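Recall that a protein's primary structure is simply its ordered list of amino acids. Everything else, from secondary elements to tertiary packing, is in principle encoded there. The following example makes that idea concrete.
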Amino acid sequence: MRLAVRRCLAELGDDGSAGPVLVACSGGADSVALAAALAFEAPRTGRPAGAVTVDHGLQPGSTERAAALADRLRRLGLDPVEVATVAVGTAGGPEAAAREARYRALDEVADRLGARAVLLGHTLNAQAETVLLGLARGSGSRSLAGMPARRGRFARPLLGLDRSTVRAAARASGLPLWDDPHNADPAFTRARVRDDVLPALEKALGPGVAEALARTAALTRADADALDGWAATAYDRVRAGPGVLAVEALAGLPSAVRSRVLRLAALAAGAPGPDLTAGHVAQLDRLVTDWQGQGPLHLPGGVRAGRQRAMLHLSADRPG
């Protein structure tokens, strides 16, 4: 655990003047183990380290539990330690709404404190669950790539460690642990994957399924990153003006690259990423590869896409 955190801190650099490193801690075993490892390692690099715990307000006693956790984190030597209270909406379902509220709160605290990074306690097993969920959605290689070890200010030092190792470290920390009952509630998809699907796969296929899925995520991420880079370069080449793409240049691209270019164009025109599905992109692709004079498409966010001879046009619809 400490080695994983030490490597993460080394990647951030040793200059503590860049602001503190924060750990997001829920009180569960994974994040408690991460907090204890950060509290041990950060002083040895000369970097300040703090913590944030998010109170989602979804269960009785959550406010008191968050305050008690904050006190324990301070006793570890983490400073500053903050409790962020959030209001969880309903958009996208309870899991997605809670996740959105949590990341928004973490971003706000990190901005205010000038934090260099926020460490998250996702493990190899959590990565395997994410890959299975992406596979079930059928949403392409980016979804199968799972969670990145680093994205912006968020870092996940534990993606190479299995949950049993992390939980052993949590017990060794001597800190009290709290298991969120939502994590075992079969009403939530991830809980069913964790408690039913992965054990069934291990039973049917033998041990090592979680490790194989995490390895698949790493390999797929490398491929997806390469394709995304190719698409970004191609997007610049096929643009003929704001919201205008040259069809002939698009048609000459491999399908995997062209679909990414079309997605980039739709996002640039104002389509919201979470609502822009693979089906929408496939419809856009038909305007390039199978155009029979069909009329314009109406994409999420009020974006209109249509073809005029050799050009594909994407723009925001104007009322009236």
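The radius of gyration is 23 Å. The chain is about 55% helix and 15% strand.
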